[in-house]
Design brief:
Order of helices and strands: HHHEEEEHHHHEEHH
Oligomer: single chain
Radius of gyration: 39 Å
Mean pLDDT: 87
CATH superfamily: Outer membrane efflux proteins (OEP)
Distance between the termini: 51 Å
Largest sheet: 4 strands, antiparallel
CATH class: Mainly Alpha
Number of helices: 9
Shape: elongated
Helix content: 55-70%
Number of strands: 6
CATH architecture: Up-down Bundle
Strand content: 5-15%
């Protein structure tokens, strides 16, 4: 067998070295986290929940109000004495100025303030969990796009190898025909197979271009930016292979952010319900202040005051009761949603675990199949050169080699995707 032809036969074994300066998966994650708009939106919601918590906690502190008013009357009011025989003006003119400063400190609010703070704390916790869930979704999305680019690159390499092998075989068939060793049909069949391989190469190039553009879009980059990725994913430690399916389901139930967020949301609604019910209880506050009243009759214009205010809403047509009941039902709905999500997550873990098991088994099988397909092609090529094998056997052997390579790469990258999705399902991404 000619050295050039033998090299082409073995060109199917692809060992992808890390490209100098290539972007690795962890760098891709960092860029996705830094640029993704969904995460920025989740961060804004988390910040808003933090401000709401600050506001709820501030209800426990004193409140200072400053007020002033200028009033214009149609005529100056007067005090009448002795049946109206004599009178004294209340103000110097037909207008007056009043101003005041008042400080109030809640003494007892029926538990409304504490419940409001609790509701805000749970809401802040829920927004934090939601942020973490979005973060993991973005990492999974970036990882999937990363793997899809690697898969498209390997698909193009397989297509290019197929073209090179068929080009060499077509040239050999042409020479054999020129020597009269084979019929012209061998050359024609090889040419058709080569044309078909070139079409698949064009399709692979298009698939790779799209995969790279989709990857750039997900990382908020120009679609046509050059993409060079490190094929070493370094994701084996995300979920230890020794863990059982049952243990991973329990782990997911304990650490999935979505479940924690829904639980916190339900608790926040319950605390809000408690706060609304508390408004029907007596409310006490310590008050104090200063007031200025412009007048002509009183012997002083300035007054200091202190006291305790009391308020009790005895009847409001059931408004507080109905609003509290509505919030309790909303909390119950969220709890039901959480229970349903827990079973969905268990199913996600099971599916991802099964996918990983299948992909691992397929990888072992397809690795062996690649070696066998390469050896089969080598033997058939040698026999064809010696005139003891038919052209169709060479073409079939090359088809088997191409399919074996495609199956191997498909299993490899499906295994990588299964590992990423299993880590996300467990909440460990």
């Amino acid at each position: 067998m000619k050295p050039r032809y033998r090299c082409l036969a073995f060109a199917a074994v692809f060992i992808l070295p890390a490209t100098v300066g290539a972007e690795n998966l962890h760098q891709a994650w960092a860029d996705a986290v830094a640029s993704h708009k969904q995460l920025a939106a989740a961060a804004a919601r988390r910040d808003a929940a933090g401000f709401n918590l600050d506001s709820a906690q501030a209800e426990r502190w004193p409140r200072l109000d400053v007020s002033s008013a200028f009033t214009q009357l149609d005529q100056a009011p007067r005090f009448a004495f002795g049946g109206g025989a004599t009178s004294q003006p209340l103000f110097d003119n037909d207008n007056f100025l009043q101003a005041g400063v008042q400080v109030s400190l809640p003494l007892y609010a029926g538990g409304a303030i504490s419940a409001g703070v609790g509701a805000a704390e749970y809401a802040a916790a829920a927004s934090e969990e939601q942020y973490d869930a979005v973060l993991q979704d973005i990492k999974l999305g970036a990882g999937e796009h990363y793997v899809q680019v690697l898969r498209a690159e390997s698909g193009l390499e397989v297509a290019e190898s197929n073209v090179r092998t068929l080009q060499a075989h077509t040239e050999l068939a042409q020479r054999q025909y020129d020597f009269g060793s084979v019929p012209r049909n061998d050359f024609l069949a090889a040419s058709v197979a080569l044309a078909d391989a070139e079409q698949r190469k064009l399709q692979a190039e298009n698939a790779l271009d799209y995969a790279r553009a989709a990857y750039n879009r997900f990382l908020n980059r120009p679609l046509d930016q050059a993409v060079a990725l490190d094929p070493e994913l370094d994701i084996d430690d995300l979920v230890p292979a020794s863990e059982t399916l049952e243990s991973m389901i329990l782990t997911a139930a304990a650490q999935r952010d979505e479940l924690a967020a829904l639980e916190a949301e339900a608790n926040s609604l319950r605390e809000n319900s408690t706060a609304i019910r508390a408004r029907s209880r007596p409310q006490f506050a310590l008050t104090g202040g200063y007031m200025y009243l412009e007048n002509a009759f009183l012997d002083a214009d300035e007054f200091w005051m202190a006291g305790v205010s009391f308020q009790w809403n005895l009847f409001n047509a059931g408004r507080n009761r109905d609003r509290a009941a509505a919030l309790e039902r909303q909390a119950l709905a969220v709890s039901h949603t959480r229970s349903d999500l827990a079973t969905t997550i268990a199913l996600q873990v099971r599916r991802a675990w099964n996918d990983r098991q299948e992909a691992e088994a397929r990888t072992r099988v397809t690795e062996a199949a690649v070696d066998q397909a390469i050896e089969n092609l080598r033997v058939v090529q040698n026999r064809y050169e010696a005139g003891s094998s038919a052209n169709i056997e060479v073409l079939d052997a090359e088809t088997l080699r191409q399919q074996a390579l495609s199956n191997r790469d498909d299993a490899r990258y499906k295994l990588a995707l299964a590992k990423l999705r299993l880590a996300r399902a467990v909440g460990a991404l």
